[in-house]
């Protein structure tokens, strides 16, 4: 890395804006930890909420220090636009450009038991295949104990039955961004042998 601040990509898709709210809360956490939050999306319809942000450029995977991946839950799984993106990263996988970089995941659903955890795990899979260091939210974060919406040790989440995040959802997303950035900053100065 040639830049001085820790570069954290927040790569997400959001049609209606719910997942985007989580992405923005995560970005606040990254910034609070002294990092630079790079909100990025993938090719999709121009009227998707996430079209607000730039489409990720391939060399950004190489240049970043960490990456968070977020999607609305689609039948218990990540949205196809994101899956399509990861299926285009074979060359990056061969080069190992994400190996030993912290990664984390986030999602939103319209129903409480509609698959937040399965989607979070589906989002984790490509990050693990790319050799990333999967980061969750520990139970030392009080908001993970919340009983009124999203947020879990697997990642940040939002129960989209209202217009804004609950306080717990906001705090968990913020904590995840802050934690990933702090770990990424530490990893930049660490030597991890194969
Ligand atoms: C094709 C499709 C499949 C969906 N599947 C689920 C689901 O399995 N569980 C659920 O709770 N919500 C499901 N939803 C609802 C979205 O996950 C939810 O509205 C989400 O908050 C939208 O996020 P966005 O505003 O970022 O696009 C689905 C929506 C669509 C369009």
Brief summary of the model shown:
The protein is of the alpha/beta class and 194 residues long.
Care to describe what's here?
There is one protein chain. α1 (18-32) crosses α6. The protein is an alpha/beta fold and 194 residues long. α1 (18-32) links the parallel β1 (7-12) and β2. Strands 1, 2, 3, 4, 5, 6 and 7 form a seven-stranded parallel sheet that branches. It has a single domain, classed as Rossmann fold, CATH 3.40.50.360. 36% of the residues lie in helices and 18% in strands. The structure holds flavin mononucleotide. Flavin mononucleotide binds next to α1 and β5. Residues 8-181 form the Flavodoxin-like domain. One of its GO terms (cellular component) is membrane. It comes from Idiomarina aquatica. This is Transcriptional regulator.
Straight-line distance between termini: 20 Å
State the major sheet. 7 strands, parallel
Separate helix tally: 6
What is the CATH topology? Rossmann fold
How much of the sequence lies in strands comes to 15-25%
Shape: globular
**CATH H-level superfamily title:** Flavodoxin domain
SSE order: EHEEHEHHEHEEH
Proportion in helices: 25-40%
Low-confidence stretches: none
Structural class: alpha/beta
CATH architecture: 3-Layer(aba) Sandwich
Give the radius of gyration.
15 Å
| Each distinct ligand | flavin mononucleotide
Summed up, the domain count is 1
Number of strands: 7
Q: Quick check: average pLDDT?
A: 95
In CATH, what is the class? Alpha Beta
């Amino acid at each position: 890395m040639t830049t001085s601040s820790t570069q954290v990509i927040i790569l997400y898709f959001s049609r209606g804006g719910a997942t985007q709210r989580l992405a923005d809360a995560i970005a606040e956490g990254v910034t609070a930890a002294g990092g630079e939050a790079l909100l990025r999306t993938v090719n999709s319809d121009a009227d998707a909420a996430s079209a607000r942000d730039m489409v990720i450029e391939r060399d950004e995977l190489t240049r970043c220090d960490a990456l968070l991946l977020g999607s609305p839950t689609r039948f218990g799984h990540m949205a196809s636009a994101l899956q399509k993106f990861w299926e285009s990263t074979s060359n990056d996988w061969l080069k190992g450009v994400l190996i030993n970089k912290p990664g984390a995941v986030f999602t939103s659903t319209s129903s409480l038991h509609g698959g937040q955890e399965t989607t979070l795990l589906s989002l984790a899979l490509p990050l693990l295949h790319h050799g990333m260091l999967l980061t969750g939210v520990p139970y030392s974060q009080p908001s993970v104990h919340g009983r009124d919406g999203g947020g879990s040790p697997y990642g940040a989440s939002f129960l989209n039955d209202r217009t804004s995040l609950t306080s717990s959802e906001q705090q968990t997303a913020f904590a995840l961004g802050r934690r990933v950035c702090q770990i990424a900053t530490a990893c930049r100065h660490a030597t991890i042998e194969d």
